[in-house]
Each structure stands twice: as C-alpha cells, then as structure tokens.
Amino acid sequence: MQEQKAATLATIFSEVLADLAFMFTDDEDFSEVDSSDPWLETKIGYRGAKNGDLIFRCTRSFTKLLASNLLGVDQDQASDEQANDAAKEFMNIVCGQLVTAMHGTDDVYNLTIPAIERMKTSPDLSLDDGDYASTISVENHSVQLVYSPTE
C-alpha cells in the first residue's frame, strides 16, 4: 500500500504537470546536482478526516520554466515572484488531486496556504524512492516530491 502511494504521487504530479504546463517527465540519472542553481522547497498540507503534508523541491530555474509555461512568456522574462506563485499554484492543484486519489471525495478537506522558501543545501536526489517520496526528471530538471501523512 505504501509503494502505491508514492506511485500515486509521481503519477498525479506528472499528469498535472502535463495537463497544466505542457511539461513532461523523462528518464535521467539523479546523481549530479547543479549547486549554482538555488533549490527551493514548496510546502502545502491538507486537513480533514486525515491530514498530510506535501513538499516539492526544485531549482529556481525549474520554477521559472514552470511560470514560463503557465504564463506564456519567455523563461528569462519570468520574475522570481511569478516563479514562486507558479510553484505554489501548481502545488495547490497537485495536493487537491492527491487528496482525492488517496482519500476519495466523501470527506471535506482544507488545503493550507502553500509556502515557498530557499533551501540552505541541495537535496540528496540519489536516495532511493521510499514509501512517500519520488525523485523525477522533468525536461532535464530534477525535482523531488515528499508526502508526509500526519495525525
């Protein structure tokens, strides 16, 4: 059951990314991380009959690419603020889809306000995907998703 949740997380992320931003996952080795591109962490949670938190880790350049695709502007024209807003809105949609996939539609859930902050260090993308984590490559950008059920 636990591995199914990680697969669900990766599948939902990939589908929302493709449908919303026309971006697609690819196969890549995650051993190399560009330390010159700052890493960001976007957090969102849900509260209701069950609770959970979702974390999305990616580089600044990925958030700008996401904003570019969502807004229809060149990547280098997307501001940091637009990039942050794009990542937060994207996580709103991913979290909503995850809640429905994992818990159904019978109960009411409230999403927390997404927050984004710069990470002090790059994440370790070489770790094996666990029960609640997925490392994915999207258009040659590595991203990491971590789901934490809470009580």
Any chance you could write out the topology, listing elements then pairs?
Layout: H1 2-21, E1 25-26, E2 39-47, E3 51-59, H2 60-71, H3 80-103, E4 110-111, E5 115-118, E6 133-138, E7 141-150
Antiparallel strand pairs: 1-6, 2-3, 2-4, 2-5, 3-7, 6-7
Helix pairs in contact: 1-3, 2-3
Using only CA atoms, what is the Rg?
15 Å
Distance between termini?
A: 18 Å
Q: Sheet with the most strands? A: 7 strands, antiparallel
- Give the H and E element order: HEEEHHEEEE
Tell me the total number of β-strands: 7
Global structural class = alpha+beta
Spans of at least 5 consecutive residues whose pLDDT stays below 50 are none
Overall geometry comes to globular
Kindly estimate the percentage of residues that lie in beta strands according to DSSP.
25-35%
Helix content: 25-40%
Global mean pLDDT: 87
How many individual helices?
3
What can you tell me about this protein's structure?
The protein has helices spanning 2-21, 60-71, 80-103; strands at residues 25-26, 39-47, 51-59, 110-111, 115-118, 133-138, 141-150. Strand 2 (39-47) and strand 3 (51-59) form a beta hairpin. Strands 1, 2, 3, 4, 5, 6 and 7 form a seven-stranded antiparallel beta sheet that branches. The protein has 151 residues and is α+β, with helices and mostly antiparallel strands. The model has no long low-confidence stretch (mean pLDDT 87). It has three helices and seven strands. The chain is 37% helix and 28% strand. Helix 1 crosses helix 3 and helix 2 crosses helix 3. The protein is globular, with a radius of gyration of 15 Å.
